[in-house]
Amino acid sequence: MFSSLSRRATALAASSLVVATAATLAAVQGAHGPVPAQDARTAAGAAAPAPAPEGPAVHPRPGSVAVCDEPGTDEIVRVPDPAAPEGGRPIWVRRPPGPDSADLPVLYLLHGSTGTHTDLKDAGIGPKMDEQMCRAGIEFVIAAPFGQEVGGADTEWGDAVDDDYRIETFVTRKAVEAVEGDRRRPRELRAIGGFSMGGYGAAALPLRHPDLYSQAVSWAGYFKVDDPSGTFGDRAEEHAPDRLLDDPEVHDIRFMLVEGRQDRTPLQEGSIHGEAERFAGLLREHGMAVETLFPEGGHTYDTWTPTFPQAVDFLTEGWTGRAGTASGN
């Protein structure tokens, strides 16, 4: 994003702050599971999506789900990947109490340019998510993959044009396989979110893989390509969220965009300031559902985490089938 040194310094300062507040959820599981489905994108490297259930698979039970009495459990899953340190790419996975199920939503979380999966874990996001799950009455799995590569490039959560690393493929295929296994979720129960560079990834990946994700939450993201390491080479437009909205298949994806009022983190061109408003306008022009939040603060977790309850409520509306199709605020 911007001059790579500048963004990394800003993001590193943010990662040192303690995460406060949080997100929610808990689910009564449906009786049915997904059936394997074929899709053209599977051949292109994305995980095969499961068909949607006939009706909403989750039903809120505020204050009455297992995580209200017992915390979720953490696990680090390591998947072979030669572009990752020690040849394995880790994923922090936090699961609510009880058995896994194809009817249990999953939120994939992407860290920023200087961060890691453990930064999110160590910031206390897991326990705070537990609190919100109890409040909202919908449980969900959190999965945060590691998005760095051994050469230190700014990966932008993408596949390098020279094939040095394939982070997008990892997130959209290998991470889904590792987290969900044979309990593959329908896209309606799979969401993606992220912070800073991860906020960019949380917008770009669902637009590039609309068969996989139905909802996205971007905290301090940017919606044009900002690629200081040249990850995308001369194919940058294929990865620009603001250039990916004409495909009818993306028009049912719901977005929440969060941007601090004082966030002026520089990009290669311009800054993050105004990106949420700009992208929200484009989404509305295409008839897509979007909600925006502009909390006081800059490019820090102290700005973003107070919006977790609203973000979880937003996701819950989609997961329970209560969301409308019109654009939000």
Automatic annotation (TrEMBL):
Keyword Repeat: no
Xref: Pfam families: Esterase (PF00756)
Protein name per UniProt: Alpha/beta hydrolase-fold protein
Ranges for region Disordered: 35-64
UniProt-recorded Gene Ontology molecular function terms: hydrolase activity
Signal sequence segment: 1-22
Start-end of Low complexity biased regions: 36-60
Assigned keywords, A-Z: Hydrolase, Signal
Superkingdom of the source species: Bacteria
Keyword Signal among UniProt keywords: yes
Organism phylogeny: Bacteria, Bacillati, Actinomycetota, Actinomycetes, Streptosporangiales
